[in-house]
Each structure stands twice: as C-alpha cells, then as structure tokens.
Design goal:
This protein has a six-stranded mixed β-sheet with strand order 11-10-14-15-17-16, with helices on one face. The protein has about 850 residues and is an alpha+beta fold. The chain is built from 25 helices and 32 strands. A hairpin with a 7-residue loop joins strand 21 and strand 22 (about 465). It is globular.
Length: about 850
C-alpha cells in the first residue's frame, strides 16, 4: 500500500539526527535500486526495520534533506523491491513524506519475514547492528533454521539403531495412551518420524527427542533442561549463590516437562513474597508455568548445542530457550502471531490425553492471562543473540495491603444495602440488576463488534470489574448453565463447603462470595450470554463468516481461500491494469494497490452501488517444511476483513451483494468471476490470430470448460447442519459422526449434563439397535461402559436400568463420545432398516446434545 502524508512536527530534525542501527537506515535519493536492494532484503531476513530514502550523508556539506522531486522518480526503486526480491516480500509498506520544496522522502517499513529472501542476482543479506552483510552456504541454512523454514527436527540420524526406539517401553506406552491401534513401525512411518535408508529405517531428530530414553546420546548434543536455584536477586551471579547443584533434566520430552514442573514446584514451595512489611505465601498459576515450559520445548532450536536454562531467583524466574523466535515472530507480535519451529513435536504433544499444548498458537496469551488473573505483573520477553529469555517476576501489580487481602481471600463486610432489582435491554445495551450483583454491558453491534461489560457487587459498590470481548468469552461464558458447586465455571477457583464460601477470580480480583451471591452472579451471566451471543450471531450472519476457521473478523482477517503465489502475482498484475481510473469496462473496478485487492465502483450500475466494496489482502500460509529456500511457489491465503463504512450509514444492512461485501460474497466473486477471468484474459493475450481467421472464444464459453478447482483451495472448514434435513440414514450418520468428533475432542474434559440430555442419547441408541441387525454386541457393550450384556436383549435391559439412575450432574465428555460410537457402528454398514419416522424420532432424541454442542462450539469459535 502506497500512501502520502505531511511531515509531523520536528520530523525533519528527527530524520537528520537519525542514527543508523539494526532497525533503521537512511539513504540518498540518488541511490541506485540495485544498491538499495541488499539493505531491503537484509531487514526482511533479520528483525525488520525502516529505510528513509531522501536524506544525504552526515558528511554532506549542503542541504541534507533532499527528496524526490516527484513520486514517479521513485518508481524504479519501488518496482525493483516489489518485483526482484526472491521470493516476493508481501506485507511491507511504502509511504511518501511530502516536505514540499525539499521533495518527497520515501519511507519503507519492512517486517521480519518468515522466509529467506534474495536479491535479483541470488545474493542473501542480513542486518547486523548498523551494517548489511552478505551470507552464504551454511550461514543461509542456519538462517533458515532460525526462521523455522526448515526444521532441524526432520533431519535423519543414520547412526542410531531404530530397534532401540521400536522396542522402547515409552513408544509402546505412548501409542496405547493415544488409543492408536497401529504397530510401532507403522505409527512412526505414518507420522514421518522415521525414513528409509536403503533397506533400513532411520529415526529423525524429533523421533529421538520424543521416544528415545536419552536423546542426548543419540543426537550427540545438549537437548535437556538445566534448573538453578540462585539465592539472590542480582543479575550478576556466581557459584556461591547456588542453593545446591543445578538439576539436569534429560530423557523424552514429555518426561522432561513432568520432571521440570516437579522441580520448580518443589523450589517454589519454600518461597515467600514480601509485600509492605509482611511476608506471605504465594504460588504461581500452574497453567502459566506449564505454558512457559512447553513453549520453550516446542519452539527451541534443536540445531543449537545447548540446554534450556531455568533460573529461580529470589525475585523472579528466568526461562532461556536456545534459538531466536521463528518465522515472522517478534516480541511485539507474540500475542497475535503464529509460527511453529517444530510442528512434529508440537503434534505429538497435542495428541496426548493431557493435551500438553492444548492452546495451539495461544501459549503466550495463556501465560499473560493467567499471570494477570493472579495479580502478577506482566512477564518480560527478550530476544537475545541466539536465545529467547522469558522472565516472570515475583511482583504483584498492586503491591500493597490490598494484595494481601486478595491473596488470602479476606471477606469484606457483607452488611450492605441490597440493590434494587432491574432489567433493561436494547439492541446495543444490557442491564440486569439483582439484589447482590449487577451487570451492565454494551452488546456486540456494528461497527463496535466486540462489546464489553462491567460487574458490580453490592458489598463493594465502588469497585467496577470490567471485561473485554475475550474476557467475556473465555472467563465468564465457560461452563454456562452449570451448578457452581461443580467448579465448571472458569471464574470459580475454590470452594469452602463447610463455610459455604466460593472463591472467585474476576479480572485481576480474587475474593469470596456466599451462596446467594454466587447463585445470582451465575444467573445473570447465563441470561447475559443469550443476548451477547445473539448479537454475535447477527453480525456473523451479515459478515458471512460461518464456514471459515474463525467466525468473526475482529483483530485479524479471515482466510477465505488459498492460491499459488505465482498465480497471485498474475492477479495483482491484472488488478494494476484495471484500476478504475484507467478505463470504463466492467472489470475496471479496482482501486489499484500493490499489496491488496481493493474493489471500487465509480458509479452505481445494475450490479453494484458506488463506492468501496471489500479489501482482500494476502497472508503467508504456514508450511511445515520447504524443499528449497530460493524456489518458492507455495500458497498464499486471501484474507477478508469487514470494510467499514465510516460515513453516516453504519449499519449491518449495508453488508449485501451491492455495497459492502461479506466473506461469502467475496469468496463467490473471487472463485466464480475473478479467477476465471484472469486466466481467460491472460490466455487471450498469449494468442496471435493468423490472418484474422482465429475465432475468439467468449468468456462464458471459456468458463464452462475451466476446471476452476485446480486453481485454488478454499478455507471452509465448517458446514451448517440443519436437523430438519436429516431424513435418511446417510444424513443421520453424518450428524452422528459430526457430534462424535466434537465430543471426542473434549473427551478428557468434564461438563454439566442434564438427565434429559443423557437419557435422550440412550433412547436414540435403543431405537437404532432395535432396527439394526448386528452380528455381535461386544463393541456396543464395551462402549456403553455400564453394560454387561452381550445380546440385544441384554444391552436393552442394561440401558433401561441405567436410565433410571441418571441425574443432572458433572460427567466426562467421553461418556457421550463412546455412546455415539455405538450409533456410528450400527449405522455405517448399511444394515439398518430405520424408516423416516424412526429417523425423525432419533433426531429428536439427539437434539439436546446437538444444541449443547452448538453452544460450546459457538463460544469457542467466537473466542
């Protein structure tokens, strides 16, 4: 995107005094494009930075701020950077600063790239301090490792005998715990953890790290964890400060995680924190420590011969992990970025029942959130020369007597006058007041699609606890409609059953509530959730985002499809040619921009209203490995985000096919119109009619024969299921498969189930079994868990007895998962003779659990 702006106050002085550094460079506008190109590539290959073009060297004796006389004079520079960088750098920005009579200063902002880039002659450069340096050979490979382009975890180790892994107890135990039926050799082959070397199999680095009894021996490198307890708060320390010898943690990765958590917990149990003049016990949130340890293991660079170092000081914890941040990750985008250096290790951990990295791509968000929840100050994350250092401090955000009260959960005087009950709702606001607690909220609406709320308790009416969009979904809405006694609501952290006291964590505040207060709080949150989610559904309907990975575009856009990078370049060339100012055909509808596709109609016609319709921009698709650092034609995602009309017509009704385009409308236009026409247009340009006898195909004729699916992959991952459409056994099986997949993925979690939900599930199984002949019933009996019968009559009797014992309460999601498997086995072999009436009855019985699935999935999707 190229923009022009006026200089800010004192900007000329700041530019003239600007020091060249690791992140900044200044150049004369007389510089040749091929001389500037290495600096541009170096910033992209390193940590990103800025280049100002139009500032003469400090040694110059004349005027130093000498910009381009016209913006067109910079075209050659911009074109070389845009077209000659290999592979193309997409998301850099270009702006002109208009210093009037002194000319235009060209300002380039270059992000840290997840790729290795080269100049047009194949040279590779990096930025080191204030210098640009060329790198070659092994150094480029190291650069690729550091970016996560090529993962060291996939390297094979030929000298290690595979039998040591295959016969190891840990591999066999792992396969058993993830409920895989594969033989060890097939299991490792399928996950690409071993590779063939002639007649033999050899393990990869990730295979040894995860399944070898001592990976350090097989890899001949350090790959463990060292833990130090240092009796000091100083940054400089020596052996004298060690409480005892450093703990060396070795072995398979999972065991390293377990042992590391145990050692840290043991050290922290002996620690106290000073607040004011008092010492109080404290404990770190286990989820935060867990995420820091797991992130260090998953994202460290195993090509570096070093351990992870964990240092426990009197006032802080330090976690130092080998290797810089991978890909385009920086310390400033950790909470929104996503990049994995070791995807195989990440996947192996994720398959475990304990879900070690359950928040894939969200680890640092969890760390920040959990520390904040317990009142700790934010952690500090630094990228050092060849490592990442995470520091967690033993300090609280409110370092006072108030903090002691929160830590020890001292009750506040309950003698306070009750609130006057009230309830008011509009499309934009929500108010619900009960005697002990009230909630006020701005509901999701357009253009403020997020909403927010605050909660006030009558015992401390001057304290207003506020919640943003993520807090509402992740803290308040987890465990909706569940009895507080089961602690399924995330904000309930502990219960003193003898005193009938509930300890809750809301925002940074931890305090106690009695049974009446917590009951009213839960009732209000349940009621509020209906209105809040209704607002999100309304926005989603107009945005057309349901089929895609994330249902709402709040902080980031939604990828709607993926195309080859080379084809994206062809599309962008077409866009530049068809700027709305360059012609009047039906395809001159682009507000041409080098970094995005911007749709614009000059005037209203039979198809579109005048104005902008949508902005679609490219985004790097994360890949697990690359065959070459220079040859790059991987996919790029086309990303949609809502185009906001900042005039007087701020309404969701403006999202329609004529004015502001939804994600679904944009997808249909891109795949049904733009892609076919660009292909057709380029084909027509290549053909040269001979003596004017060539018959020109029409676009419609061409489109009829085009295999459009060969040119893109869509990003639709979700399909709406309408229960009214489930009229056949095939559709019933699709419904049950969908439900089983959902509940299976939450199998290790617990949830609140009503008696109606579970009884209805078992009644649907009864109908299915009565009308489906099976050869044997051992599988059914085993998955129902409570059943002992091995015949149809025996199973039906077992179900009947079990139904009479079911009550509302807390249960594992796996109960539903295994019961649904009984339906799948019964339906999938086409032996069932269910008629349409019986199918409808089964759908009715499955509806309560289907509705529960939709509600949980909805909250997960929006958050």
């Amino acid at each position: 995107m190229i923009s022009t702006r006026k200089p800010i106050i004192n900007e000329e002085t700041k530019l003239l005094n600007l020091e060249e550094s690791h992140f900044c460079d200044v150049k004369s506008c007389r510089i040749k494009p091929n001389k500037l190109h290495p600096h541009f590539v170096a910033f992209a290959n390193s940590d990103g930075g800025e280049i100002y073009i139009g500032v003469e060297d400090r040694k110059s004796t004349g005027e130093r701020l000498v910009g381009f006389r016209t913006k067109e004079e910079a075209n050659e520079i911009i074109n070389v950077l845009a077209e000659k960088t290999d592979p193309t750098l997409i998301d850099y920005s270009v702006e002109f600063i208009d210093f009037r009579e002194k000319g235009y200063v060209l300002h380039l902002t270059i992000p840290k790239s997840p790729l290795v880039h080269y100049t047009s002659d194949g040279s590779c450069f990096i930025r080191r301090n204030a210098s640009t340096k060329e790198v070659k050979g092994a150094t480029i490979t190291e650069l690729a490792f550091s970016k996560g382009i090529f993962s060291y975890e996939t390297i094979i180790k030929k000298h290690v005998a595979i039998n040591e892994i295959l016969n190891g107890a840990y591999l066999i135990d792992y396969i058993k715990r993830i409920e895989s039926s594969q033989e060890p050799l097939n299991f490792l082959e399928k996950l690409k953890l071993i590779q063939r070397d002639g007649e033999n199999h050899v393990p990869t680095v990730s295979c040894l790290l995860f399944f070898s009894d001592d990976p350090q021996i097989g890899l001949n490198t350090k790959c463990g964890i060292k833990i130090y307890r240092l009796k000091t708060s100083q940054s400089e320390y020596n052996r004298d400060f060690l409480e005892d010898r450093p703990k060396n943690i070795r072995g398979p990765i999972e065991l390293q995680i377990i042992k590391t958590k145990e050692v840290i917990a043991e050290y922290l149990q002996k620690s106290m924190i000073e607040i004011g003049n008092k010492y109080v016990d404290y404990s770190y949130p286990s989820n935060a420590l867990h995420e820091i340890i797991v992130n260090a293991i998953i994202h460290r660079d195993y090509s570096i011969n070093d351990d992870i170092h964990i240092r426990i000081f009197n006032d802080r914890l330090e976690f130092e992990s080998p290797g810089r941040l991978p890909g385009s990750m920086t310390t400033s985008n950790l909470l929104v970025g996503r990049s994995s250096r070791n995807p195989l290790i990440e996947r192996l951990l994720n398959q475990l029942p304990d879900m070690y990295n359950h928040d894939i791509g969200d680890g640092f968000n969890t760390i920040y959130k959990e520390l904040k929840k317990f009142g700790f100050v934010e952690p500090k994350i630094l990228e050092l020369n060849n490592s990442v250092l995470v520091t967690v401090y033993h300090h609280f955000a409110n370092n006072s007597e108030d903090t002691i009260k929160l830590l020890t959960s001292i009750q506040i005087n309950a003698e306070q006058e009750d609130f006057k009950s009230d309830k008011k709702e509009t499309e934009e606001t929500y108010l619900f007041v009960k005697e002990k607690v009230s909630i006020q909220a701005f509901l999701p609406n357009y253009p403020d699609t997020m909403g927010s709320c605050l909660i006030i308790f009558n015992r401390f009416p001057d304290v207003m606890i506020t919640f943003n969009f993520k807090d509402i979904l992740n803290d308040l809405f987890q465990g909706l409609y569940t009895n507080a006694i089961y602690k399924l609501r995330r904000f309930i952290v502990a219960i003193d059953k003898e005193k009938h006291i509930y300890y809750v964590q809301l925002g940074n505040n931890r305090f106690s509530l009695n049974e009446i207060e917590v009951a009213q709080l839960c009732d209000i949150i349940d009621d509020f959730s209906e209105k809040y989610l209704e607002g999100l559904r309304k926005i989603e309907l107009h945005f057309g985002t349901f089929p895609y990975e994330k249902s709402l575009a709040f902080e980031a856009g939604i990828p709607i499809l993926k195309i080859k990078r080379s084809f994206y370049k062809e599309i962008m060339e077409f866009v530049q040619e068809h700027d709305y100012e360059k012609g009047d055909t039906s395809w001159h509808i682009f507000d041409a921009n080098p970094t995005m596709i911007k749709l614009y109609s000059k005037k209203s016609d039979e198809r579109y209203d005048a104005g902008h319709h949508v902005i679609l921009y490219p985004k790097q698709v994360q890949n697990e490995s690359y065959s070459s650092f220079k040859t790059f034609d991987e996919e790029v995602a086309i990303v949609w985000e809502p185009f906001h009309d900042f005039g007087n017509k701020k309404s969701l009704m403006n999202f329609n096919d004529r004015y502001l385009w939804s994600a679904e409308k944009s997808y249909e236009w891109f795949t049904n119109e733009l892609i076919p026409y660009v292909i057709y247009y380029n084909e027509m340009k290549k053909r040269k009619p001979l003596f004017n006898t060539f018959k020109r195909n029409t676009f419609e004729d061409f489109r009829q024969t085009l295999k459009i699916k060969d040119y893109f992959n869509d990003c639709k991952v979700r399909k709406k299921i309408n229960l009214s459409d489930v009229l056949t056994i095939k559709r019933l099986l699709e419904l049950v498969n969908n439900m089983q997949y959902f509940y299976h993925n939450r199998g290790s979690q617990s949830g609140w189930f009503t008696a109606e939900e579970l009884i209805s599930l078992y009644q649907s199984i009864v109908i299915c079994l009565k009308h489906t002949p099976l050869n044997e019933y051992y599988y059914i009996s085993g998955n129902l868990r409570f059943a002992t019968g091995t015949t149809l009559d025996g199973i039906l009797s077992d179900i009947d007895r079990h139904i009479s014992t079911i009550e509302n309460g807390k249960n594992s999601f796996s109960i539903v998962d295994t019961a649904l498997r009984c339906l799948i086995v019964s339906l999938r072999d086409n032996k069932s003779n269910l008629n349409i009436s019986q199918i409808g009855e089964m759908v009715g019985y499955l509806t309560p659990l289907f509705n529960k699935q939709q509600k949980i999935d909805e909250i997960d999707r929006y958050s």
